[in-house]
Amino acid sequence: MKEAIVVKATDFAGRPQDLFINDVTQRKGVVMVDYGPMWREHRRFALKTLRNFGLGKKSMEDRILEEIQHTVKTLEKNSGQTLSPQVMFHNAASNIICQVLFGKRYKYDDQTIKLIVRCFAEMTKIANGPWAMLYDSIPLIRHLPLPFNKAFENMEIFLSHARCLVNEHKKTRVSGEPRDFVDCYLDELENKNDESMFSEEQLRRISFDLYVAATDTTSNTLLTAFLYLMNYPHIQEQCQKEIDQVLEGKDRVTFEDRLSMPYMQVHCDVIIYCL
Ligand code: HEM
């Protein structure tokens, strides 16, 4: 244990390296890559950029609050009918991260975003299923037209979409005045030194990683919260009371208001624990 955690800490610091994932990601991006200079450089950059979200004129919170208006509209439009909260939350989380990354929000029925969501769902299924295992274990089958090829095709679809978005940014950006994550990365590329591992391909791949890392996690957390509140209506009622109190005289609750919402805070912790 000491050898793994202390003596050879850097050897064991990365994620388990899996051949299928490595071939699909080309060992680029930030989420699945091994511990090393590229991961460190990009992780630091991603954290700094996402944390400083004074990007453009809008903060991350403004973007969330704006998207919530669309979610509320969806709920109102479907009042009295059934709707899938999974799709609704997925759309909302996807749009918030798309605005942060690309400065772009998509209509919920936009065909491009529907395609991206479908591609990602298929990729996850393949990566966690038997075909990825067979790909890892039997070298002979890797070049055959088997279902795992769909994951490579889907990655290409995302990358070509990211290429279009990056090209659009290159045409409209003003150096040193970033509007979103892509602009920040392009600024960094402009000022990079010789050792830096920033590249346009890495930008496309890190965009994919952040999109994926942010969307399912956030929407599943919201889904769990919904399920929790549906199962415990008395807690839902208390939460609503607290929100109504804080809302008095205001049109919306903000992150700052969490300090006057101890009941909500406790139950948010319970929901995170349920995850
Ligand atoms: C409720 C929402 C979220 C949950 C539950 C969640 C959960 C996690 C977990 C469990 C990990 C693995 C940590 C590890 O292996 O050490 C992770 C990693 C990561 N998450 Fe999230 N996440 C959420 C939202 C987000 C969002 C919104 C973003 C981006 C905007 C994001 C970006 C990342 C990245 C880049 C990594 C990889 C970090 C690394 O390689 O060190 N996540 N997340």
From TrEMBL:
- Lipid bilayer topology: Peripheral membrane protein
Q: Which family does it belong to?
A: Belongs to the cytochrome P450 family.
What the entry lists under Pfam families is as follows: p450
The record's section on PANTHER family has: CYTOCHROME P450 2F2-RELATED, CYTOCHROME P450 508A4-RELATED
Give the protein's recorded name.
Answer: Cytochrome P450, family 2, subfamily X, polypeptide 9
Q: Sorted alphabetically, which keywords does the UniProt record give?
A: Endoplasmic reticulum, Heme, Iron, Membrane, Metal-binding, Microsome, Monooxygenase, Oxidoreductase
Q: SUPFAM superfamilies under this entry?
A: Cytochrome P450
Q: Which domain of life is it from?
A: Eukaryota
Where is it located?
Endoplasmic reticulum membrane; Microsome membrane
Q: Which GO terms describe its biological process?
A: organic acid metabolic process; xenobiotic metabolic process
- The main place the protein resides is endoplasmic reticulum
Q: Which cofactor does it need?
A: heme
Q: Name one GO molecular function term.
A: iron ion binding
Q: Which GO terms describe its cellular component?
A: endoplasmic reticulum membrane
Q: Keyword Iron: yes or no?
A: yes
